[in-house]
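Colleagues,

For the teaching module next term, I've prepared a clean inverse folding example: a structure given as tokens, and then the sequence designed for it. I'd like students to try predicting residues themselves before seeing the answer, so please don't circulate the second half yet.
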């Protein structure tokens, strides 16, 4: 008869099948039916893992895709991708059966929406592909994939292989149908589910007179597909009558589906001997009533005229207990659960997690803290008696000698957790080989050989009634038990959530108790801090409480929302990150460690007692300002008042009419105009005061005499950030009386920003709205509203030139004489010139700790040193509201010619990101490392860390030659080495000579010796001169047929040409490529480089130098939007430019050499080079290296770097190559890659060919999300790709957050460029290997429109493309978009007609 143990295994097998086949239904029965079952022993974890991909399961469990999951029949057809041999000889095999399942599972994986990364970034789900095969998955080279629907045969194959594994591992046998009972039975029961056990037992125990004696029981292990032939083979020929028991609650047909299946199989073909089949409806049956039910069924079956559809049992089962206290477990807890799993693995014991071994207990009870705590204590006692048992066993004679010795050793070490864990495996093996009864008995409790890490998991619901919750019990008990409490209240909703009930601070409560380890963590803020806290909690001898933050509004919130909420809460001190270990004191260490920057008042008060705060301040003097200040709206109001009053005092000495000038500006236009207006007013004798709208106390408005407001337009007709509070205060205000106020508005906008007719009202909307509201409040216009339009010949200056004189006239100061000449505005050229070769006041700025920012000119200069100041844009609003300066931090970019790094350098870079940055690294589109979130106080240390690893950051940004790129070319390492050497040579040759870099960043404390060679003061720049270049300058090398560095997109592009001897001979030199554009400014455009000719490899660095010098002397230094080499060349003409370079060089370019490109993307997976070394290209989505709960990629790469003997190569597509792996080291590398899931490259061709820039939250220029959004967008398109058989097809898709174009969007086949938050310009028609620019297809469209365009277009492409036709070419052929032939025609013939009507 089926035992309960067996029942559990088919559940897992069914689960595995659903995951493998992409479709499946697991039938669960009401818990009440199995409430009386015996408890089910824990399944062997390794077996479960072997048949079931736990990670994939979790992905499914936590991702609902458009309301459909693999568990339900959503009407979709599950499909299999079959890959035939690839052209490069790496065969994926015709995948059948289990092989096919891998592919299928991966297909499913790719349908799951991507998850957050730093969010980080969000990332695709991973699955190790180790078992499947070595794979080269190039979006360019994988061929001949067919997608077909999963068939019944496939399912049978899948399930058979799962069963075969089970047979082998646990010796239990399964088949689609199972018969038990006498082989000569005449009557049988067909039944499903856990009832099989209960009914079976009663039939077994039947007395000879019972109606059901000697009956057989048949059950289905695989119901769909229905395999009739297998059924016939299963049923003994002796069976004549069959009773079918079906649980059909909501009947829609007269006959149950099972009955119909049986009738079809057994009655309509050669179906064995069954003569009578009678259906019954099975209701709830209590165990004691089973005999009665069976009697009824068999009497009916045996009667001459059996009744069909006889109801057996009650229609309703007993009600589940109604617990008054019903804390539910957070459903998004998986991130923390995964980390617990990762850290503790087999040692983890979750007392009250859903799905744990508390079968038979209602979920509501199992989830309560009391239950969990009780069960942990019971568990602990069980282990204690187990230890006693082992102690006595060690001296008994029931074991082999070795086993005895091992038991004794284990018993001696019983108190030492580490030791017993080490001994556990060996001891288990010995007992297994011992095989005696006593050994078997001990083995049945083998999990107790390890010291478990016991956890109780709960939700923030426990915080409302701490005294009654398990928190109190646990902390008060002093037991060594760990609690993980997940708080999901979003930061933005905290006040509302608290209004009714007071939520207590669990962390504080536990700390006050004194004896508990307490940590406050947030996985979306610091992954490593979570790890650290969990490990410490486990090690702490006593109760531990880890409160973990995971804020969400709805369960399907995107990871981005969770990330943003977390960041705000941590940054503002609502959810501080800290660890509290009361045992530290005895070791002379502080009990409290603060891992974030700000803490809330309650925590501060707690720490203020007992000296903890003083200790903390001593340790982190920089925190004192944030610790000792409470922020709030009152502070902000006070600050405003103070600022304005002191301004007013300043003006007191002046005569003339008062004029208040307010501005709102996102990117500085309105601000600089306002400041200039203020100065001009002063020059005319007016008492002018200039301030941002947000700094102005609104209540003062009625007392103004004259006020002018300059506001630009942001978002979609919105006020810029620093004008919003003012607007919110005034827009519906009816109290303000402006009867005595004269005002005027100047609005800055762009009449084509939202080009569609229906969006025209967004043009200068804020200015127009404000003008209306102020007039309604009684204000008198000094002059009509002025409108500045970016589209006018002089931009907003055109409108402004008309407006300003009207203000002077209205104020009676238009005819003032002797106005002093205005100083021209300070330009970048002035800043460079005055900087003393890039020194400026950077050094002084770094020492000023009153702000985390540096001065505006220094912000320009630090770029030359490889670092930009940024601020976290996710936090701007919150910090503003709290009266804090923006969260300033620095981005640091390395200089890494050719993107080649040693494993040691990799580890050092990893350290830099952990110790000084935001724990993530970005591999950039220009093949280098970039760090974000480095705060000013850590900047110098970070720079030193980078330099200690023999890398530098000098000239990684700024108006100089930047990192020199080189194709990463894993298939030809020898050749790569030669070309790479040239990139390094050019890079060194064009380095700036100033010693400012060393002085500022690398000097040691005594300010005497520098840490890196270069002491000599060398205050001149032989190549650059004091003003360096007009704009940035980029050089790249591509090695045909790979254009993976986008050779056409850089100021200088070098195409490597091989000589007849197979070695590098020289380069075709392209000049004038460039990407940066300004939206709606047709004077700006992207451009592909023009070929100047061929140069030998010996001359190439000199040729590059000369191109750079001609640009230095002829580039436009007045207008930075027109300063790149591309404009110099177009203005001059290619031939004239070439002539100037040759003249300076004294040599001539030779004739361009033939070459051929095939693609500009990477080839993923393993490849061998010509020397026999192996290379693996990892898929690093958008270059973000980070750890997440799902995918510990950063840790994995670090571990690999520790043992890797070759090198790493960063690719121009933001991916990474593990290079130069010897055959002998391959197995180890493969094993490690599989362990960290780094070996998966089975993503859709579109994802593999995609690339996105950083954008939000750090890039100051971003107008829309990019890196955090592109993966999501691709997930939304993958369904269409799949349906149309294009999963493997490479389509180059790129996204950037602004038109600066860091991810080179203009060369993609399809691109999205940020226009405003959530809105993008869409471009089509780029060349597949980066040779042709694309063209604007639609402006300012949002996700729904993007999908509406892309989905049918992709479908059409799949149906109408010609052999080998690329997506970009296709879009042009079918007339979707015109071809862009050169940069100058980029704006011509765009698909979207703009309308000029207002
Ligand atoms: C993200 C973004 C959104 C914009 N949205 C609008 C808009 O809706 N309507 C409009 O007239 N101008 C819009 N503009 C144009 C700006 O208002 C205009 O370029 C202005 O000169 C910028 O001034 P600022 O530097 O002071 O912010 C937008 C600009 C940006 C960058
Ligand atoms: S493209 Fe724009 S948004 Fe993206 S990283 Fe570059 S500057 Fe920032």
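(Answer key — instructors only)
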């Amino acid at each position: 008869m089926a035992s309960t143990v067996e029942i559990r295994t088919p559940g897992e097998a069914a689960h595995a099948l659903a995951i493998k086949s992409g479709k499946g239904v697991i039938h669960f029965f009401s818990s009440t039916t199995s409430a009386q079952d015996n408890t089910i022993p824990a399944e062997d974890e390794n077996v479960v893992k072997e048949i079931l991909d736990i990670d994939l399961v979790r992905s499914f469990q936590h991702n609902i895709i458009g309301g459909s999951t693999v568990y339900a029949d959503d009407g979709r057809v599950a499909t299999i991708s079959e890959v035939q041999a690839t052209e490069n000889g790496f065969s994926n095999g015709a995948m059948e059966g289990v092989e096919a399942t891998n592919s299928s599972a991966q297909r499913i994986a790719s349908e799951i929406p991507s998850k957050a990364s730093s969010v980080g970034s969000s990332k695709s789900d991973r699955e190790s592909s180790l078992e499947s095969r070595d794979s080269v998955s190039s979006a360019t080279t994988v061929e001949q994939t067919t997608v077909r629907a999963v068939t019944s045969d496939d399912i049978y194959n899948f399930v058979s292989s799962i069963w075969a594994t089970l047979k082998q591992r646990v010796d239990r046998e399964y088949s689609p149908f199972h018969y038990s009972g006498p082989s000569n039975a005449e009557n049988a029961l067909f039944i499903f589910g856990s009832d099989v056990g209960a009914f079976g037992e009663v039939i077994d125990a039947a007395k000879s007179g019972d109606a059901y004696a000697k009956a057989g029981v048949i059950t289905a292990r695989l119901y769909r597909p229905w395999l009739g032939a297998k059924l016939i083979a299963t049923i003994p020929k002796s069976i004549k009558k069959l009773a079918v028991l079906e649980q059909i609650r909501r009947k829609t047909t007269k006959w149950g589906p099972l009955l119909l299946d049986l009738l079809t199989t057994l009655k309509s073909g050669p179906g064995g001997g069954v003569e009578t089949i009678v259906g019954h409806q099975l209701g709830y049956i209590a165990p004691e009533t089973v005999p009665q039910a069976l009697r009824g069924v068999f009497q009916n079956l045996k009667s001459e005229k059996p009744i069909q559809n006889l109801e057996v049992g009650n229609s309703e089962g007993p009600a589940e207990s109604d617990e008054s206290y019903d804390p539910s477990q957070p459903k998004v807890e998986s991130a923390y659960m995964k980390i617990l799993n990762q850290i503790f693995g087999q040692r983890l014991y979750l007392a009250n997690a859903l799905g744990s071994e508390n079968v038979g207990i209602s979920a509501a009870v199992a989830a309560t803290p009391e239950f969990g705590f009780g069960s942990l204590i019971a568990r602990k006692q069980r282990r204690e008696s187990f230890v006693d048992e082992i102690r006595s066993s060690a001296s008994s004679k029931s074991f082999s000698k070795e086993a005895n010795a091992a038991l004794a050793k284990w018993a001696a070490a019983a108190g030492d957790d580490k030791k017993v864990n080490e001994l556990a495996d060996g001891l288990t093996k010995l007992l297994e080989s011992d095989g005696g009864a006593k050994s078997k008995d001990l083995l049945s409790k083998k999990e107790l050989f390890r010291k478990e890490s016991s956890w109780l998991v709960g939700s923030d619901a426990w915080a409302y009634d701490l005294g009654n919750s398990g928190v109190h019990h646990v902390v008060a008990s002093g037991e060594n038990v760990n609690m993980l409490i997940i708080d999901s209240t979003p930061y933005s909703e905290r006040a509302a959530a608290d209004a009714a009930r007071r939520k207590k601070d669990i962390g504080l409560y536990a700390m006050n108790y004194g004896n508990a380890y307490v940590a406050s963590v947030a996985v979306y803020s610091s992954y490593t801090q979570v790890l650290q806290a969990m490990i410490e909690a486990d090690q702490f001898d006593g109760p531990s409480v880890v409160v973990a933050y995971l804020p969400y509004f709805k369960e399907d919130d995107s990871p981005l929302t969770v990330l943003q909420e977390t960041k705000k809460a941590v940054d503002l001190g609502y959810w501080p990150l800290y660890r509290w270990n009361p045992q530290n004191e005895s070791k002379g260490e502080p009990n409290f460690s603060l891992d974030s920057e700000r803490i809330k008042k309650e925590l501060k008060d707690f720490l203020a007692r007992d000296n903890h705060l003083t200790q903390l301040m001593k340790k982190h003097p920089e925190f004192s300002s944030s610790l000792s200040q409470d922020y709030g709206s009152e502070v902000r109001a006070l600050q405003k008042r103070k600022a304005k009053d002191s301004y007013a005092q300043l003006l007191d000495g002046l005569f003339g009419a008062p004029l208040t000038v307010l501005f709102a500006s996102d990117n500085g236009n309105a601000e600089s105009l306002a400041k200039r207006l203020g100065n001009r007013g002063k020059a005319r004798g007016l008492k002018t005061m200039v301030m941002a709208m947000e700094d102005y106390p609104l209540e003062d408005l009625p007392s103004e005499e004259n006020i002018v407001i300059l506001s630009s337009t942001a978002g979609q007709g919105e006020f810029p950030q620093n004008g919003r509070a003012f607007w919110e205060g005034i827009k519906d205000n009816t109290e303000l009386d402006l009867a005595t106020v004269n005002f005027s508005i100047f609005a800055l906008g762009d009449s084509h920003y939202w080009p569609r007719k229906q969006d025209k009202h967004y043009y200068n909307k804020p200015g127009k709205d404000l003008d209306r509201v102020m007039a309604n409040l009684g204000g008198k216009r000094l002059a009509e509203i002025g409108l500045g339009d970016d589209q006018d010949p002089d931009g907003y200056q055109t409108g402004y030139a008309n407006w300003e004189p009207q203000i002077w006239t209205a104020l009676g100061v238009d005819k003032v004489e002797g106005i002093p000449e205005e100083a021209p505005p300070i330009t970048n050229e002035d800043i460079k010139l005055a900087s003393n070769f890039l020194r400026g006041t950077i050094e002084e700025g770094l020492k000023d700790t009153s702000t985390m920012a540096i001065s505006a000119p220094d912000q320009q200069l630090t770029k030359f040193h490889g670092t930009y100041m940024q601020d976290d844009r996710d936090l701007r609003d919150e910090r503003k509201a709290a009266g804090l300066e923006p969260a300033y931090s620095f981005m640091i970019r390395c200089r890494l010619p050719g993107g080649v790094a040693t494993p040691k350098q990799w580890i050092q870079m990893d350290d830099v990101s952990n110790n000084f940055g935001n724990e993530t690294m970005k591999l950039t589109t220009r093949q280098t490392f970039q760090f974000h979130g480095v705060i000013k106080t850590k900047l110098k240390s970070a720079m030193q860390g980078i330099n200690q690893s023999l890398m530098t950051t000098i000239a990684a940004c700024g108006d100089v030659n930047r990192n020199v790129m080189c194709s990463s070319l894993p298939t030809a390492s020898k050749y790569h080495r030669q070309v790479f050497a040239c990139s390094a040579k050019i890079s060194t040759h064009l380095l700036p000579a100033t010693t400012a870099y060393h002085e500022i960043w690398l000097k040691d404390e005594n300010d005497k010796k520098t840490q890196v060679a270069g002491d000599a003061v060398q205050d001149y720049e032989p190549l650059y001169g004091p003003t360096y270049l007009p704009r940035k300058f980029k050089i790249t090398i591509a090695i045909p047929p790979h254009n993976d560095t986008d050779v056409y997109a850089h100021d200088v592009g070098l195409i490597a040409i091989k000589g007849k001897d197979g070695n590098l001979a020289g380069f075709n030199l392209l000049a004038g490529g460039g990407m940066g554009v300004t939206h709606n400014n047709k004077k700006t455009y992207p451009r592909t480089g023009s070929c100047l000719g061929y140069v030998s490899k010996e001359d190439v660095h000199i040729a590059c130098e000369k191109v750079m010098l001609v640009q230095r002397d002829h580039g436009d230094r007045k207008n930075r939007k027109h300063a790149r080499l591309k404009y110099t060349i177009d203005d001059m003409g290619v031939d004239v430019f070439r002539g100037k370079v040759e003249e300076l060089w004294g040599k001539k370019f030779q004739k361009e050499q033939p070459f051929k490109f095939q693609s500009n993307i990477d080839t993923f997976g393993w490849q061998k080079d010509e020397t026999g070394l192996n290379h693996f290209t990892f898929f690093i989505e958008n270059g973000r290296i980070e750890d997440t709960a799902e995918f510990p990629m950063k840790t994995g790469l670090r571990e690999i770097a520790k043992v890797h003997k070759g090198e790493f190569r960063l690719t121009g597509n933001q991916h990474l190559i593990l290079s130069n792996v010897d055959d002998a080291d391959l197995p180890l590398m493969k094993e490690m890659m599989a362990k960290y899931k780094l070996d998966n490259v089975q993503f859709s061709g579109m994802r593999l060919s995609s690339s996105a820039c950083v954008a939000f939250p750090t890039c100051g220029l971003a107008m829309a999300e990019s890196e955090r959004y592109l993966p999501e967008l691709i997930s939304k398109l993958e369904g269409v790709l799949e349906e149309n058989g294009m999963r493997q097809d490479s389509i180059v898709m790129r996204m950037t957050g602004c038109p600066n174009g860091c991810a080179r969007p203009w060369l993609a086949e399809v691109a999205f460029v940020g226009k405003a938050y959530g809105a993008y310009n869409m471009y089509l028609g780029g060349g597949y290997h980066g040779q042709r620019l694309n063209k604007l297809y639609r402006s300012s469209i949002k996700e729904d429109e993007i999908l509406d365009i892309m989905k049918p277009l992709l479908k059409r492409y799949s149906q109408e493309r010609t052999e080998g036709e690329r997506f970009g070419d296709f879009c042009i052929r079918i007339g979707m978009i015109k071809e862009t032939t050169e940069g100058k025609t980029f704006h011509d013939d765009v698909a979207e007609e703009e309308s000029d009507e207002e």
